[in-house]
Predict the 3D structure of the following.
Amino acid sequence: MNKHAVLQLILEKLNVDLETAQRAAQTAYETATHEENIAENKYDTLGLEASYLAAGQAKRVEEIRQSLALCQNLQLRAYDDQRGIELGALVGLEDENGRQQWLFLAPDAAGLKVDVVGQPVTVITARSPLGKNLLGKRIDDEVEILVAGAQQHFTVTEAR
């Protein structure tokens, strides 16, 4: 699995998400400002509700723009065992039950998932508990995180 290809897929997905969010924001804005949605009395709140939705959609557009810019400016470096896992790393993990997962450590866009030849890759950030614990780790290192009161153990199987 090539991390440059994974980053390209992440950028493409963010661009699609941005276009979708922009259309939704425009639709919400048009609904909020449409003359039929002007309040006729204090109980007529359709226009107000639409304006809240438009504001939320505009905020979402800005968040995606920020994620896209941060990911576009990410400088990928080859994995170096001396530095260990760092921002831009593509990491393979195995849990205590032998289940494998792939993660991409990005500056933003946490939770985004892309498919690389049938293999899902999840974007995490260094702000997440798992991302924080992965920084500086090397292949075969153990990683532990506490999730909802339960300790989870992982082994780093690959890093690129």
Summary: The chain has a mean pLDDT of 94. The longest strand covers residues 150-159. The CA atoms of residues 52 and 119 lie 38 Å apart. The two ends are 9 Å apart (CA to CA).
